[in-house]
Automatic annotation (TrEMBL):
GO terms for biological process: maturation of 5.8S rRNA; tRNA 5'-leader removal. It comes from Aspergillus campestris (strain IBT 28561). InterPro entries: Pop5/Rpp14/Rnp2-like, RNase_P/MRP_POP5, Rnp2-like_sf. It is an enzyme of class 3 (hydrolase). This is Ribonuclease P/MRP protein subunit POP5. Residues 24-43 are annotated as: Disordered. Component of ribonuclease P, a protein complex that generates mature tRNA molecules by cleaving their 5'-ends. Also a component of RNase MRP, which cleaves pre-rRNA sequences. Coiled coil: none annotated.
Length: 201
């Protein structure tokens, strides 16, 4: 029996505001506060109107717009549900998207071209929700298992929380990270399980 293989894409939804892109200055007390505010604006929460089903539908429509029937067929057809959103957190603006392994680059490309989500205050789960809030979908990790994508999402959320609190990561995580720094990819025993960003799998 043949096992159907999938890829899991960890996606961050970012909200860059060009007005907040001031020239970077050396960090100071006031500069540190300004950097924290800019970081909070970029990583702001997403509207509850963006549900997993709405995001999956938006993704399939973008693949259809970009690649036509061929792209939809590569995803498994219109009703096959080849693309699904396994996790979506509006609070952290993070999602995990599952897609067929053979066509994860199509999904990645479609995510790169998607640029709008429903505005905060839009009706939740509305089929015709107006996509009015500009955003950037950034694929952070491509993995062969859901567990690896979840672990990366947790690691990134902890790092952002520590950064915003101003706590030195080395002091808290130094023991854990310091011990693992000398070990060469102990966790990546199965190369097919985890795909790096530059991999051709």
């Amino acid at each position: 029996m043949v096992r159907v293989k999938h890829r899991y894409l960890l996606v961050e939804i970012l909200y860059p505001e060009p007005a907040s892109w001031a020239a970077t200055k050396p960090p100071s007390k006031a500069g540190s506060t300004a950097q924290t505010q800019a970081q909070l604006r970029i990583h702001s929460p997403t509207s509850d109107a963006l549900t997993p089903s709405v995001l999956a539908r938006m993704l399939r429509e973008e693949v259809d717009n970009m690649f036509g029937d061929w792209g939809v067929g590569r995803l498994g057809g219109v009703n096959a549900g080849g693309v699904s959103v396994k996790y979506l957190s509006p609070a952290t603006s993070t999602a995990i998207v599952r897609c067929p392994r053979a066509s994860f680059r199509l999904v990645w490309t479609a995510l790169s071209y998607m640029s709008r989500v429903p505005e905060i205050g839009a009706p939740k789960g509305a089929r015709g929700a107006v996509l009015s809030r500009p955003c950037v979908f950034r694929v952070v990790k491509v993995s062969g298992t859901m567990r690896r994508a979840e672990e990366e999402a947790i690691r990134r959320a902890r790092r952002e929380t520590l950064r915003l609190r101003g706590v030195d990561e080395q002091g808290i995580l130094g023991g854990l990270v310091g011990e693992l720094a000398g070990v060469d990819d102990v966790m990546d025993d199965d190369e097919d399980e985890d795909v790096g960003m530059e991999s051709d799998d």
